[in-house]
Amino acid sequence: MRRTTLLPSRRGILAGAALTALPSALLSATRAEAGPRTVDHPGAAWRPASRGNYTPSNRPRAHPLHYVVIHVAQTTYGGTLSVFRDPRTKVSAHYVLRSSDGRVAQCVRESDIAWHAGNWDYNTRSIGIEHEGWVDRPGYFTDVMYERSARLTAEICRRYDIPRNRAHIIGHHEVPGSDHTDPGRHWDWKRYLRLVESA
Ligand SMILES: [Zn+2]
């Protein structure tokens, strides 16, 4: 009881002391960290995955990033988000793209390890991007989704110095040991890479 009543005022005093001592540039950084979680991709909506569906980390320090892994979700945008929110599913990806308007949701911070590749080594070294739709329904792969996704991938490559080529921007089916087929034969890699290069 005593501890709990004392703690808030003590913390208040300490924070006050720190505020007067810190230069203003540091101050704004401190405030940003204390606020609600920010996204890594500007404009993305923060739709967090369950804490039971990813591994906290401090990448790229803990693990350098080498790959962007492209997925097709085999369900809708909303369906994907609810799968990631459900702690029983044990799956997640960093981002989900919506077909109709290219909306980007971020579900796991890039510093953390999402469970998307089905291969621990690749999970630790990659960012996973899910796309609303099905591998055999190319109508879901809209222009706006390609464009927004390519912009996102280009930014990730820039941030972590990942080469913008097919050796580093890979499909889920190319992850060793994967039994998944996504993004499938309708995914236009040539177009996607061209968009990533020009973004
Ligand atoms: Zn996949």
Structure write-up:
This is N-acetylmuramoyl-L-alanine amidase. InterPro entries: Amidase/PGRP_sf (IPR036505), Amidase_domain (IPR002502), NAMLAA_amidase_2 (IPR051206), TAT_signal (IPR006311). The chain contains six helices and eight strands. It is an alpha/beta fold and 199 residues long. It has a six-stranded mixed sheet, with helices on both faces. Strands 2-6 form a two-stranded antiparallel ribbon. The chain folds into two domains: 33 residues; 154 residues, Peptidoglycan recognition protein-like (Lysozyme-like, 3-Layer(aba) Sandwich), CATH 3.40.80.10. The longest helix is centred in the N-terminal third of the chain and has 20 residues. The structure holds zinc ion (ZN). Zinc ion binds next to loops.
Determine the oligomeric state from the structure. Answer: single chain
CATH superfamily of the largest domain: Peptidoglycan recognition protein-like
- Coarse structural class: alpha/beta
Proportion of beta-strand residues: 5-15%
Bound ligands, named by name, code or SMILES: zinc ion
What's the architecture of the largest domain in CATH terms? Answer: 3-Layer(aba) Sandwich
Portion in helices? 25-40%
Q: Work out the count of structural domains.
A: 2
Put simply, the count of helices is: 6
CATH class of the largest domain reads: Alpha Beta
Largest sheet: 6 strands, mixed
CATH topology group of the largest domain: Lysozyme-like
